[in-house]
Amino acid sequence: MEDNGGWDASADAWIASIGQDGDWTRRTVLDAVMLERAVAAGGRFIDIGCGEGRFVRMLQEKGLNGCGIDPVPRLLERARECDPQGDYRLGKGEQLDFDDASFDLSIAYLSLIDIPDFRSAITEMVRITKPGGRLLIANLTGHFSAGRWQKGLKSRFVMDHYSEERPSRERWAGIDVINWHRPLHAYMQAFLAHGLVLTWFDEPTPLENTSDKHDRYTRVPGFLVMEWQKPI
User: Fold this and answer.
1) Residue 45 — pLDDT band, cuts 50, 70, 90?
2) DSSP assignment, residue 170?
3) Quick one: which of 28, 32, 55 has its CA closest to 222?
4) Is the per-residue pLDDT at 155 higher than 80?
């Protein structure tokens, strides 16, 4: 699948699905912790894989300044429609068009799972982050991306081939894209290879029981959030 892993063709369906406030998992699992960590880090930020710009706008509302990049023109068009004064640029995480040490905070909010060469993307994130700055990552957990819920008399979660890095075609709400499964050690080793220091880690679960999805994301946490610091 070409066209940015299906994202060009899926852009309008994504915009409709995410809306102004984000989907259920972002609203109830990830947004609060990502905002808290980003505001605590402070400084100039970059949101790598910003999509339609929702999280950039949320950070700006908290008083932070920065920009978003994304390889999908339609998503950037939507970001600019919603935020005409915002800074949104076409670009890929594997080759960032910024000078070394340009940002205090580099963010990948569920975007590393869309990048085939995630190791190059992490190298680029480290390069453009200032010494002492932070890298804030939200990602699928490896056990979640390696498994599926099976329905029956009693639902259960089945996982296999955890250690194999591989693409996975995902379809929902008219969206048809390629995500990448990687075991946790692949990400951890990629960050550690740059001498980064892990300063925070969590596997957040839903804040409120407001949906039938709550049970699934409580029994099997689907997401992790980690924060790394670049040594001075």
Assistant:
1) very high
2) E
3) 28
4) yes
